[in-house]
Amino acid sequence: MVSSRWTPEQLKLGFHLYCQLPFGKLHSRNPEIIELARLIGRTPSAVAMKLVNFASLDPAITSSGRRGLGNASQADREVWNEFHTNWDGLVEQSASLRISLLGNDDVQESLITDALDVEQDFTGETRIAPARQRIKQSFFRRAVLSSYGEKCCVSGVSDRRFLVASHIVAWSEDESIRLHPGNGLCLSAIHDKAFDSHLFSLTDDYRVALSEQLKQTPDDFLRQIFWPVDGLQIRLPERFRPETEFLRRHRDRMLHQD
Fold first, then answer.
1. Which residues, in sequence order, are CB contacts of 5 under 8 Å at separation 6+?
2. What percentage of the chain's residues is helix, strand, coil (to nearest 5)?
3. pLDDT value, residue 65
4. Which residue among 28, 135, 183, 213 sits deepest, i.e. has the most Cβ atoms within 10 Å of its Cβ?
């Protein structure tokens, strides 16, 4: 019989998956929940219930009126708190646990469930095996895109071929928040390029703030794309809202650039 008490390892794998699934897909029919249940020897219903327990700890979820199951355990809270200060550790440990459970050192590629459509700047990541780097990129992309309903938070573009999980504080600038979903925005490729170049930023209340360079651009196409959204609030994610500290760092860079 499987113990009713979840092990720390099982909880970590559950939280890792919770971060990557939309709230509406936390149910026992989800193939990824079924796969994790098989891997850790629990039922899909038990895994789905645990993920909904994690949702009850998520301020972005509860502030919208959704409460999850509301009976998260102390162990659930410990995992939640641990990884909110160590996202890199979450991804590393979860990858190692899955490899251990699958019993095959060659399964790293099976952990990559989402192809990266748009090249991103990961120049700060050195001396890392390509498979591990891809695992980290995949986690960040899935966590950010699922939080925003796979739509650009500025334009509403929903074609995944044009969507980027954009870092607010660049990957190369701060190792501690590289994988923090609250350091991400779901943007179209053109909005990502402009944001990465500090041509626009966001205010603390999530409104678009154009740089002086963009306000004064003579380019008709850029005017059509960016001028209408100046001052408008972005589409907020269902969880992992952009951290205001990260937004201020990005906005300061834009203002000093102007």
1. none
2. 50, 5, 40
3. 66
4. 183
